[in-house]
From TrEMBL:
PANTHER family from the UniProt entry: PTHR38813, TOXIN RELE1-RELATED (PTHR38813:SF1)
Protein name: Uncharacterized protein
Domain of life according to the entry: Bacteria
Gene3D superfamilies linked to this entry: RelE-like
Cross-referenced SUPFAM superfamilies: RelE-like
Entries under InterPro entries matching the protein: RelE/ParE_toxin_dom_sf, TA_system_RelE_toxin
Length: 80
């Protein structure tokens, strides 16, 4: 997060906040609103949120519904 500019940081935090609120109130996440996709291959078990050209790779704790952020990076670098 420290490497992100202020606008990108704000956008990422907003999306994560929306995800957190949905998990707390509805116990589900809204894939359409947040553009969430489940990942395949080496990142199977993780999901990603698209935030402009940035991607947030995360997973939800199975028992606690905690959000574990794996990586935040640009689209071109995140899947390397």
């Amino acid at each position: 997060m420290e490497k992100l500019d202020a606008n990108s940081r704000k956008s990422v935090l907003t999306k994560i906040s929306i995800l957190k609120t949905c998990l707390e109130t509805q116990n589900v996440y809204p894939p359409e609103e947040l553009d969430i996709k489940k990942l395949k291959g080496e990142l199977k078990g993780f999901s990603r949120i698209r935030v402009g050209k940035m991607r947030v790779i995360f997973e939800i704790g199975k028992e606690t519904d905690e959000i574990f952020i794996y990586e935040i990076n640009s689209r071109g670098n995140i899947y390397d």
